[in-house]
Amino acid sequence: MREVPYTEYATKAIEILSKGAFLTTAHGGKTNTMTIAWGNIGFMWGKPVFTVMVRPSRYTYQLIEQSGEFTVSIPLQDMQQALALCGTKSGRDLDKFAAAGLTLLPGQKVATPIIAGCGLHYECKIVYKHPLDPAALDPAYKAKCYASGDFHTLYFGEIVACYREE
Question: Which parts of the chain are coiled coil (predicted)?
Answer without folding.
Answer: none
